[in-house]
Design a protein that fits this description.
Radius of gyration: 15 Å
Low-confidence stretches: none
Number of strands: 0
Helix content: 40-55%
């Protein structure tokens, strides 16, 4: 199942430790309507598996970018 804008929007406040307002805006010129990445081929051909869940990856990225240890 691919994460949606809503699920990422629900995870991120937990990552930063505070509520974050979500603002829905009309699409801008050049925006991609829908994008879904699949790792099936990497799994089949390279025998690759993700090591961490999305929320853990977002937390690690946030902590790295902010220099914090949340």
């Amino acid at each position: 199942k691919s994460p949606t804008r809503i699920s990422v929007g629900q995870i991120f406040p937990q990552v930063v430790g505070r509520p974050l307002p979500i603002k829905y805006c009309p699409p801008r010129e050049g925006d991609i309507y829908r994008s879904c990445l699949a790792n099936r081929k990497a799994q089949e051909i390279l025998k690759w598996q993700p090591k961490i869940e999305l929320s853990a990856g977002l937390t690690r990225t946030y902590n790295f970018l902010t220099g914090s240890d949340n």
